[in-house]
């Protein structure tokens, strides 16, 4: 029996030992108290990395091979740690978390002008978006607006979608990944802030084209679509981070669920709600879904159960299900979210003082590239905290 098999058996065994999860709820106050204590450890680890400043690295992303990995402001994950700090402030109301959130948010401010990435929603809305929501400071609002202006420069009106990547031009012409659904929230918000409906129209166009082209009949999603910008037709459907072109990459399904749930909130288009329901059904009823609900990194990896889990996919899914339940309370989405959150809190949360200060263990970033396998990752922690906050709302 190898390491992955042993970990999987221990996690599932612990889950089964809990018995039925019908009445199991996370103690949110205690979970946030633990998160604050653990984040203090992460802040200490950041201070120990004396080379980070020289390398212009500003935000903690993961820990691999026993070392903290810091990233520059242009990394797609740079906004998650500031967002976590804002969530700690939102729950605790402690000034120290607000002060730290302000410091780490400002470190990525220049990315508002970055037109070379589709990830400005992740980067700027998780950080500056939460900052504006919690403080009302118009300086944050201005950054959000400029970020949206930068993002829409990547929109092609013929294909009707926002381009994801500029790299690997020999593999694709105009790649659009399912993750990109998450960046639309920034555009919806800026329409509210400015009254400029062009941002809204671009977001809806992208969502419509994604709904039309990105999904299989069972509501699973391809990772990458390649568009012809002269005709708007799809040239190819493939993967970059999943097991194969035809497989269902777990985090991709989570992004899709969250994205279409959010799009329904912003538009009340029933097609988006139906899509979210279909994706939720795919995730929750998949034959490869393990007993504790935390998925393997790809639903179609033939090595299951001898392969890595992805706690980040579970955290994103839980956050999405809490919101989806608010639009359809007849399908047990809140119960499923509670079960996922309980499992993460019970079996995937790091012991205080370990994990370099990250909150959750056992995420998978990019298995095909042999990168970030069975490690903590900042976006897992961000959506875990978001799930905790959402779990308190009825």
Search tags:
394 residues; mainly alpha; three-stranded antiparallel β-sheet; disordered N terminus; 50% helix; two-stranded antiparallel sheet; 13 helices
3D structure, described in words:
The protein is mainly alpha-helical. The chain has 13 helices and 9 strands. It has helices spanning 3-17, 28-48, 80-92, 95-106, 120-135, 138-151, 184-194, 197-213, 250-267, 270-284, 311-325, 333-348, 378-391, and strands at residues 57-64, 67-72, 155-156, 161-162, 175-177, 224-227, 234-238, 363-366, 371-375. A hairpin with a 4-residue loop joins strand 3 and strand 4 (161-162). Helix 3 (80-92) runs parallel beside helix 13, helix 9 (250-267) packs parallel to helix 11 and helix 11 (311-325) packs antiparallel against helix 12. The termini are far apart.
Question: What is the element layout, followed by pairings?
Answer:
Blueprint: H1 3-17, H2 28-48, E1 57-64, E2 67-72, H3 80-92, H4 95-106, H5 120-135, H6 138-151, E3 155-156, E4 161-162, E5 175-177, H7 184-194, H8 197-213, E6 224-227, E7 234-238, H9 250-267, H10 270-284, H11 311-325, H12 333-348, E8 363-366, E9 371-375, H13 378-391
Antiparallel strand pairs: 1-2, 3-4, 5-6, 6-7, 8-9
Helix pairs in contact: 2-13, 3-4, 3-5, 3-13, 5-6, 5-7, 6-7, 7-8, 9-10, 9-11, 11-12, 11-13, 12-13
